[in-house]
Amino acid sequence: MSKQAFQDYYPEELSHCYGCGSNNADGHQLKSYWLDEKQGETIARFTPKAYHTAIPGFVYGGLIASLIDCHGTGSAAAAAYQAQGRVIGSAPALRFVTGALNVNFLAPTPMGVELILRGKITEVKERKVIVEITLSADDVVCVSGSVIAVKMPATMG
Ligand SMILES: CCCCCCCC(=O)SCCNC(=O)CCNC(=O)[C@H](O)C(C)(C)COP(=O)(O)OP(=O)(O)OC[C@H]1O[C@@H](n2cnc3c(N)ncnc32)[C@H](O)[C@@H]1OP(=O)(O)O
């Protein structure tokens, strides 16, 4: 696993994201890493707080969607650097936003355990990266999803 999170390379001015920005004290501050860079596999971990409850004992689906979203866009940025043979974080910055987010809730996600997000890069183009993601709790895949990440338009930053 890589030591530094992809989000740690985001510049200060782009680190306010509710899902993964280190400058957002009220956000989730999700951190994503390479699990196996050669295979295009990434990982993130998150333990929901009590207020992330949907029904007592189970995690709110909107939280799960945002974790998949940010693990996807972070993984996309890392994959884009990799595809260009560049060191992650080097200038000019490569940043991705969500073009499309698909989430399938396969089984209820229990509260009280660490959730594991695994990403697999399935397509890398100059302006678009697709990441397939699963979310597991206690080794059970509770959610699958995908993110179509598109290079951040100049109008956004
Ligand atoms: C910096 C870190 C930030 C972390 C971000 C965290 C995640 C977020 O919450 S981001 C905020 C939510 N997202 C947004 O607000 C984005 C708003 N949308 C936009 O700005 C634009 O529609 C944008 C950038 C997604 C696409 O722009 P557009 O000019 O249409 O892209 P374009 O260059 O034509 O398309 C590139 C590729 O993406 C595909 N694509 C674009 N949008 C979509 C979509 N909605 N669904 C599927 N595919 C899409 C195109 O088909 C094209 O694919 P291909 O190359 O295979 O033909």
Automatic annotation (TrEMBL):
Gene Ontology terms: biological process:
fatty acid metabolic process
A cellular-component GO term for this protein: membrane
Which residue range or ranges hold the Thioesterase domain? Answer: 57-140
List the catalysed reactions.
Answer: (5Z,8Z,11Z,14Z)-eicosatetraenoyl-CoA + H2O = (5Z,8Z,11Z,14Z)-eicosatetraenoate + CoA + H(+); dodecanoyl-CoA + H2O = dodecanoate + CoA + H(+); octanoyl-CoA + H2O = octanoate + CoA + H(+); hexadecanoyl-CoA + H2O = hexadecanoate + CoA + H(+)
Instruction: Return the InterPro entries for the record.
Output: HotDog_dom_sf (IPR029069), THEM4/THEM5_acyl-CoA_thioest (IPR052365), Thioestr_dom (IPR006683)
Recorded E.C. number(s)?
Answer: 3.1.2.2
Give its localization: Cell projection, Ruffle membrane; Cytoplasm; Membrane
**Mostly located where?**
membrane
**EC main group:** hydrolase
An example of a GO molecular function for this protein is: thiolester hydrolase activity
Q: How does it sit in the membrane?
A: Peripheral membrane protein
PANTHER family attached here?
ACYL-COENZYME A THIOESTERASE THEM4
Name of protein: Acyl-coenzyme A thioesterase THEM4
